[in-house]
Write a structure and sequence with these properties.
Blueprint (H helix, E strand, L loop, with lengths): L2 H11 E2 L1 H10 L4 E5 L10 E3 L3 E2 L2 H7 L8 E5 L7 H11 L3 E5 L2 H7 L4 E3 L2
Parallel strand pairs: 1-6, 2-4, 2-5, 5-6
Antiparallel strand pairs: 3-7
Length: 119
């Protein structure tokens, strides 16, 4: 794969927090954002507002909870975390339309977007 193909593929598979925020406002019924972080409750204290939590370790058993008529946007911790990429592969192999949120929850926080407490 050459550099152009790599970057085109990356853009097709990811969405930035800013682009997601705009797209979700324009078409709120098109997307479902899913938090796939594996973390104990004392660490996982907040999530992106409106996100569904399905930890990566539970995704295979809970995959039927996700609608196939929406684009699933998955996120994990940061650029060093690959849980969202692993979740995307599982979902794509099962016929879902998936995007990875670039930079995970850290990038969402860096741009100042909303969070809500995890119940």
């Amino acid at each position: 794969m050459n550099k152009i193909d790599y970057f085109k593929a990356k853009l097709e598979a990811t969405i930035s927090p800013m682009d997601f925020s705009q797209a979700a406002k324009a078409e709120p019924d098109k997307f479902l954002i899913v938090d796939v972080r594996n973390a104990p409750p004392h660490i996982l204290k907040q999530k992106i507002t409106g996100a569904t939590i399905i930890p990566l370790r539970e995704l295979a058993e809970r995959i039927d909870e996700l609608p196939k008529d929406k684009t699933i946007v998955v996120y994990c911790w940061d650029t060093w975390c690959n849980m969202a990429a692993k979740a995307a592969v599982i979902l794509l192999e099962n016929g879902y339309d998936v995007l990875e949120l670039s930079g995970g929850v850290a990038s969402w926080q860096a741009v100042g977007f909303d969070f809500e407490p995890v119940a």
